[in-house]
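Self-study notes.
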Amino acid sequence: MSAPAPSSTFRARRFRVLLRTVAAAACCGLVLSGPAALAAPAPAHDAAPAGAAGRGALLSAERLYTLDTPRAVTAELTGAGFDADTVRYGVAAYRLVYRTVDAHGRPTTASGLVAVPLRTAPRLHAVSFAHGTGSHKDDAPSAQRAAFVSAPVIAHASAGAFAVAPDYLGMGTGPGLHPWMDIGSETTASLDMLRAARAFAPRTGHLLAREVLVTGFSQGASAALGLGRALQSGEDRWFRLGALAPVSGAYDFGGAELRALLAGELDAKSSVVYAAYTLVAFNRLHAVYADPGEVFRAPYAGTVEALFDGAHTGQQLMAGTPGTLDELLTPHGRALLAHPTGALDEALRTTDAVCADWAPRAPVRLYMATGDEQATTENTGRCHVQLAANGVHAPVVDLGAADYHGSRHLGSNVAATPRIVRWFAGLSWH
C-alpha cells in the first residue's frame, strides 16, 4: 500500500527544505540542514515482542513510505540528483529501532532505514550503506525521504537488494550525542542493524542470504570497512562479508586528512567544521582537552561544543563557525591536530587502522573523485597501498571530476552509487 499523497502545503515545505539542504551540503560536505521533511508514515507499526533482548534485537518497525512502482522510484531518485538507470522494482521503506551498545559498551538503542524491493523473490542479499557526516539528528537515512543521505539506500533496494542503513548512535531516534568518527561504535551499530533487519525480513516475505554487500560514503566509508572486518572475523553467526565498496573515505584521518586540512589544501569552510567536529567529538570520548579555551579561540570557545549537540541544523553550524582555521583554533589547538599526542593520538590510531590491520577475503573496490575538496584523495591512495601490503588487490575507481551542486566530494557519492549497484548485482557466490 502506498503512503498517502502529500498535500500541496507539504510539497512546498519539502521543496524549501530541499533547497536549504542542498545549500548547506554544497558548502560543507554532508553537514546537512535538518530537520528534514519526511512524508507522513503509513499507519503500519510493528513492535517487538515483550522480553526481546540482546544486541540487534528488533524493538519496532514503522513503515515510512512506499514507492510502489519503478516509475515512482525513478522520480524520487532523479529528484534527489541520482541516476535511476538501475531501477527495476518499487520500494517500501521502514524505520527500525533496535538494541545495540554505545561507545563504552553500555546498552542503548539506535535506529536505521530498511528499504525493501517489492514483488521480488523471497531470498535477497543485504546491502549495508553507511552514510556521511551530519550535524542534526535528522541528517540520517531513516529521517529523510530519498534525499542525498537516503537515495543510495533506495537505489540498492530498487535494483533488488534488501538495503539497510544505520543512522548511527545518537542520530535518527537514537538517544544521546553522536560519537563522530568512532569506528568501534559505527561498527557495532551497523552490525546490530543488520541483525535487526534479518529479524524483520520475514515480515516482508523475505529471508536474507549470508553474504552482505557493504558500502559507505565519506564518514561511512570508514564505517563500512569496520563492518566488513567484523563480518569477516565472524562476529555474527549468520552474516559474512560478500563485497566491500567504500567511497571517498578519510581512511588516514589523523595523517593524510588532517594534514591536508591544516595545509589549506581542502575547502576552507569544510575544514573549519571538520576541525571543530574532530576536537569536540573526540574530546567527549577521550578527554582531549580540559577546557574548550585551550583549543578554540574566543568567542567560539564558549559556543562551538553546543553546535554539535544534534539539535543544531547545518545552517546554524555554518553560521556559528568562522571562515578560517586561524579564526577558530588556538596555537595549541592547531598543534594538537597537526601532531596529535596523548588520548587523541591513541584514538586516531584506531581510526586510521581501517585499511592497515586486516586483509579482506571478499572483493574490494575503492571509489574516489579527482579533486575531492573535502576528503583528500591521498586517503584512498594510502588505503590502496595498505591493503596491497596485506596481499589484497583493491582497484581504485576514479570517478573523475564528479560534481553535485559544486562539490566533487558529494558528487562522488552520486556518481559511485549506480556503479556500485551494478557491481554488486553482477557478483555471485557458490
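Second protein, same conventions, sequence then structure:
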Amino acid sequence: MAWIERWDPEDEGFWRESGERIARRNLLFSVLSEHIGFSIWTLWSVMVLFMGPEYGIDPAGKFFLVSMATLVGAVVRVPYTFAVALFGGRNWTVIAASLLLLPAVAAFVVMEPGTSYTTFMLCALLTGVGGGNFASSMTNINSFFPLRKKGWALGLNAGGGNIGVPVIQLVALAVIGLNGGPRLLLGIYIPLILVSAVCAALFMDNLASVKNDAGAAKEAVRDAHTWIMAFLYVGTFGSFIGYSFAFGLVLQTQFGRTPLEAASVTFIGPLLGSLIRPVGGRFADRFGGARITLWNFVAMAVATGVVVVASERTSLPLFTCAFIALFVLSGLGNGSTYKMIPGIFQAKAVARGLAGEEAAAYGRRMSGAAMGLIGAVGALGGLGINLAFRQSFDSAGTGTGAFVAFLVFYAACFLVTYAVYLRRTAPAPRAEESAADTEPQLSYAEV
C-alpha cells in the first residue's frame, strides 16, 4: 500500500521538489473515479428517457424516482468524508469505485417493461453511492494541495467529476440514436467502473497525516460558517445536480420533446457547468470567493427570471438558452463557494493568533471536517429541486411555480453572502483612537 508519511504542501521547497508531482497524479485519478461516480449517480436521469408509456410511470413518478437517487447521494456524503481518514485516500477510492458496480449491475438486470415501480426505486436508491464519491474525493484532494492552490485544485477535481453528468447523457444520446436500449448504455459503463478502481489502486497514494478528528467534526458542526456555507452550496451545487436530473424530464413533460430531442440538448448545460467550475475556483483565488459568489447569485436570479418568462410564454428556444445559462452560473458558483471554505477557516485561524504552518494545519483540519457536511446539505438541494418540480407539474402541469421558488431562494443566498462575508463592519473605537483609525474592515472578503 502506498502510504506517504511526510506531507507538507505549504513548504514551497517540498512542493517544488516532489509534492506538486504527487498531488497532480492523485488529482488525475481522483477525477477519473469521481467522474464515473457522478455518471452512475445521475444514471436514472438518463434511464427515465428510455421509459416510454409501456413502463406505466407518469412524469410525477419519474421526478420522484430521480429524487431518491439525489437523496441517498446526499446522505452518504457524510460517512464518505470520514472514510478517507479511516481507510486512506487511495484505499477508499478503490472501495468507492468498486461499489458503483452494485447500481450498474442492478439496473442492467431490471431495466425492462413490467418491472415494478418499487424495484426501480430500489435501483435508483443504490445509485446514490455515486454521489458519495464527491465528498471523499474532495476531502482527499483538499489534503494534497497548499491553500494558494486549493481553489484551482478543488475546482478541477469537482469539475472533472461533474462532467460525468453530461458524458453519460451524451453516451445515452448516442445509444438512443443507434436505436439501442438501456442495457447497451450499462454495458459501456460497467467496464469503465472496473478501470477506475484498478487505476486508483495502481496510481494513488494514502496520506498518513490525514486522520479522523472527532474534535474537528464536532467543532465544524457547531461552527455557524459550516451551515451558512451549506446554505449557499444548496444554491449552487443543489441547482447544478437538481437541474441535471430534471432538465430532460422538463423538456419532455412541458415542451413535448421526444427522448432523442431531449437527450440532444440536456447534456449541454451540465457540460458547460462542469467545465466552468475550475474557472470559478480560479476567479475566487484571484478576487475572493465571496465577491464571485455574491454576483453569481445575482446572475442566477436574472437567468431564473428569464426561465419563468419563457415558461409562461412556452418559448422553447428562450427557455433552453436561459436554462443552460443557469447551469453555467451554477458551475461558476460551485467553484467560488468551495474555495471559500478553506479560506474561511484559515481566516479564523489567523483571528485566533495562529500563523504559518500552525494556521494552515488548523485550516486543513477544519475545512476537511466541514466539507463533508457542506457537500451533503448542498446535494440535498438537488432533492428539493426535483420535489419542487414534481409538485409543480403534479398541481399545475408546468414547472413555472418551481422556478419562481428558486428565484426567491437565490435572492436569499445573495443577502446571506453579502451580510456575512462582504458587509463592512465598523468596530467600536477605543478612546485613544481617532475616527481616522477606525476604517471599516472586510472580515472575510478575500475568502
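Instructor comment on the second fold: The longest strand covers residues 3-4.
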